[in-house]
Amino acid sequence: MVSRRDFFMGAGAVALGAGLVSKAGAASLPEAPLMSDATTQPPLMPSTGRPYNPVVTLNGWSLPWRMNNGVKEFHLVAEPVVRELAPGMKAHLWGYNGQSPGPTIEVVEGDRVRIFVTNKLPEHTSIHWHGQRLPNGMDGVTGLTQPGIPPGKTFVYEFIAKRPGTFMYHPHADEMVQMAMGMMGFWVTHPKNPNFMKVDRDFVFLLNNFDIEPGSATPRVNTMLDFNLFAFNSRVFPGIDPMVVRQNDRVRIRFGNLTMTNHPIHLHGHEFVVAGTDGGWTNPASRWPEVTVDVAVGQMRAIEFDATDLGDWAFHCHKSHHTMNAMGHDVPTMIGVDHRGVVEKINKLVPDYMVMGERGMADMGEMEMPLPDNTLPMMGGQGPFGGVEMGGMFTVVKVRKDQKPGDYKDPGWYKHPAGTVAYEWKGPVPEPTRSKSPGGQLTAPTNKPDGVELKARKPSGHGGH
After folding, report:
1. What is the four-CA torsion angle of 331, 333, 336, 338, rounded to 10 degrees?
2. Which residue, among 248, 204, 198, has the nearest Cα to 400 in the 3D structure?
3. 87 and 239 in contact (C-beta within 8 Å)?
4. Confidence of residue 323 (pLDDT cuts 50, 70, 90)
5. What is the CA radius of gyration of the chain?
6. Predicted TM-score of the model (pTM)
7. Does a cis peptide bond (omega within 30 degrees of 0) precede residue 238?
8. How far apart are alpha carbons 429 and 437 in whole angstroms?
9. Count of Cβ atoms closer than 10 Å to residue 111 Cβ
10. How many Å apart are CA 95 and CA 102, to the nearest integer?
């Protein structure tokens, strides 16, 4: 983390909005720390203000603050950033304080909060505090509740964090462009009583997606549905850190959805309950066990479970194409097509041409085919038994018996006890018994029934799917 004191001391670096300085008493702005590291940072323990149990932002960090006459002051800088989505690919995004998503803001229920927002984008912006109860003029909707923050200016938002819960922040100014470019962040308001809803590990992250063409670095901002990169906190597997816990820890995972579609988030090996939503904590009597929870656009969910079972447990979106990474929507389905003869002819013109897709898509994860610079391969993650065949919205919850409390370091791959890994059967395999009726055969009968003409028609519509 790097201080920005020198940056703000530069002549003409920031122009403050007239009238806002005197109201906020901001003769000196609080520092705006900068984060350039894309790995998960340790929890930010509160050194001032009221106590709380901090969260851990997956591949992110929490924003430090200063206390000023009882007010908790933060400084966000909206700016162009370079975000490493995974080793081998960096994206040119817009974000806050060097990162996209921006830093997590943590406060306590009842805190008076003051946030300075400096705009270093090439256009005006604002910040909407998604889900918060606050004065209407602090809601951050450009043109409705405030003017946009012009480039080079700093605006001040001030309100009381009235209710504990899980929230987000994002622009309400040229929203489709700015959010497609990665402008978003997480907000947690902790309860006054640190023992209320207390857990041992509390993880947070945002769901996001981008449309970045192979070989390029800037998202296509007008895409509405066909995204090719799906991410947890702007990181894609295998570049996502694991969520490391101690066996029998009570674990909370909070996530918010600022993409253009819903995401069914699935946890392996454990059941969980939905303990919180955008509206606050759920009534314990209303909770039921789940292994998948659907998160609609603009929603937030907080799930909780006891990490009872040791292992490396997959945690991912259950829309399969959201865990493929670097999708190609126009790739034809070639399953069952024998095009070896065609390959021989093509190789005379294109020596590096490779057969793809005739046996499914798994081979693509193992192919070492040349890719454009700054492009991630599909399904490129490796595990202890070979290719994981996942990318995008996928990470691992690592449950370990000997993980120390507060230790989030990656312990490596799980060492399975003898006899607990699926293995190959070496004995004889009998031939399957098949029905003699046409419906039980592998293929349709070659002789069509008398008087019946069989026709096949290719479906139309839904172009591009």
Report:
1. -30
2. 248
3. yes
4. confident
5. 26
6. 0.82
7. yes
8. 24
9. 23
10. 6
